[in-house]
Amino acid sequence: MMNVDLAQKLLAAQRWHHDFEVLPGLRTNGAYNPEGLWNELHLPADMTGLRLADVGASNGYFSFSAHRPGAAVTAFDYRHRDNSGFTLLSLIQGVDIPHHQVNVLELSPEVYGQFDIVLALGLLYHTPDPYRALVNCASLASQRLLVESYCIDHRLPEALRVEPVMRFLPDPERFPNQGQPNDDPSNFWGFTSVCLKQMLEDVGFAVDRIRVEADRVLADAHRVGGNDHRLQLAYQCFDHQPPTGDPLDPAAWTIF
């Protein structure tokens, strides 16, 4: 590990999102303390032999936390590791975790493989296509998928809280005072907890546990199957089947 005085100098010069202890007594002093959420994930105390993907890794708190109990961690973020604090933390802690700069809408198991556990924390509401983002995260998860997101249950009448509702969040710079959390222009959607649960079920997962606290929702799910036909309808094209034989014969044509 790096000398504490040098580490403190490097940390203090940067703006952090995750606020956590990097070395004993030394914190990033970020805007958000993720330690409570880490405890709520209920991950195994010993993750030796488990492959874990941290999608939307940001500064890297969850990636480094999962590495310590033995998980083989791979991090994904739309920022390069040099520009998210991830490389700096690797340097300070002397830990090298694989990191891919990729947008969640471009993730695929064909390129990156599958993982026993996938974390998608504080992610879905930052993407304009949250269903596609969830599909991609789910495609990486061979067993368990944990999703944490902005929740709008508290903003709705009671009758709507039990409905699978999504609420669009317009750009706060152009449309102020529309309820956007933190006036953050990267926020696109809010979800009811029922909506998130049904989306997870729709992509082939059973929700074992869902927790709503204030404006956040955490869902813990495991894979039970898939829905390839629905995903093909959403994001793919059907294979071309040209007419066979006489084009005036009705049997020559295939109509999807």
Q: How would you describe the overall organization of this protein?
A:
The protein has 256 residues and is of the alpha/beta class. It has nine helices and eleven strands. A hairpin with a 2-residue loop joins strand 1 (21-23) and strand 2. The mean pLDDT is 94. The radius of gyration is 21 Å and the shape is globular. It has one domain (4-252): Vaccinia Virus protein VP39 (Rossmann fold, 3-Layer(aba) Sandwich).
Q: Which class in CATH terms?
A: Alpha Beta
Spell out the CATH superfamily.
Answer: Vaccinia Virus protein VP39
Which residue ranges are poorly predicted, with pLDDT under 50 across at least 5 consecutive positions? none
Order of helices and strands: HEEHEHEHEHEHEHEEHEEH
How many β-strand stretches?
Answer: 11
In order across it, which strands form the biggest sheet? 5-4-3-6-7-11-10
Number of separate structural domains: 1
Q: Report the mean per-residue pLDDT as an integer.
A: 94
Protein name: DUF1698 domain-containing protein
Pfam family, one: Methyltransf_9
InterPro entries: Mo5U34_MeTrfas-like (IPR027555), SAM-dependent_MTases_sf (IPR029063)
